[in-house]
Amino acid sequence: MEGSGKRRLNAYGRVMRRGRIFALMREGWSYDEIARDEGLTAERIRQIVSEVLQKRKVDTEADHAKLQLARLERVMHFASEALARGDMGVGSLYLKTLDRLDRYQKTAKAAETYDDEARERLLAKLNQVAERLGYDKILAENARIIAEHEAKVQQSYAEQAAGGAAPEIASDYA
C-alpha cells in the first residue's frame, strides 16, 4: 500500500465518506459524479451504498405507516392553514395528503396488534430511552429527596408530639 500514495481511511473517515456519498445521492448526483468527487471508482461507490443498505434495519410496515402519518400530519396542517388564508394553489396538495393519510391510516391500524411480545418490545424501547436520558439517576435522586423530606416531617412531628403541642403538618400541596 505504500507505493499507491493513497491512505486508508479510519472508521471516522469511512463514516464521514458514507455521509457525503448519501448526501450527494439525495441531491441527485450519479455514482460516476460521486466517484469523481471522492476519488474512487463508480463500482466502489456502488459497493459502499450496497453495504450500508444491507446493514440498514427495515421498519415494519406498521411502523413505516405511523412514521408517514406523522410526516403527513404536518403537511396537512400547513396546507389547511394555507387554504384558510385563501391560497387555493394548495388544494391539490391538500387532497393528495388526505388520500395518503387514509391509505397509511388503514395500514397502521390493520397491522396493529398489542400482545405480550409487542408490550415487551415497547418496554425495551422505553427502558433504552430512559437509560439514554438518565432517568434512573433522576428517579433515584428524587427518591432520596423525598425520603429526606419525609424524615424531616416525621422528626418534626415527633418533636412536637413530645413537647405536648399539637403537631403542625405542613403540606407542599396547599
Summarize this structure as a short list of keywords or feature phrases.
mainly alpha, 74% helix, 174 residues
Task: Outline the secondary-structure elements.
Layout: H1 11-26, H2 31-38, H3 42-55, H4 61-84, H5 91-110, H6 116-133, H7 135-162
Helix pairs in contact: 2-3, 4-5
What does this structure look like?
- The protein is mainly alpha-helical.
- The protein folds into three domains: 2-55; 68-112, no CATH class; 113-169.
- It contains seven helices and no strands.
- Helix 2 crosses helix 3 (42-55) and helix 4 (61-84) packs antiparallel against helix 5 (91-110).
- The termini are far apart.
CA radius of gyration: 29 Å
Calculate the mean pLDDT score and round it.
80
User: What structural category arises from helix and sheet content?
Assistant: mainly alpha
Strand segment tally? 0
H/E element order? HHHHHHH
Distance between the termini: 76 Å
Note the overall shape: extended
* Tally of alpha and pi helices: 7
- State the oligomer: single chain
Query: What are the low-pLDDT stretches, counting only 5+ consecutive residues below 50?
Result: none
Q: Any idea how many domains?
A: 3
Q: Summarize the main sheet.
A: none
Helical proportion?
over 70%
- Percent range for β-strand residues: under 5%
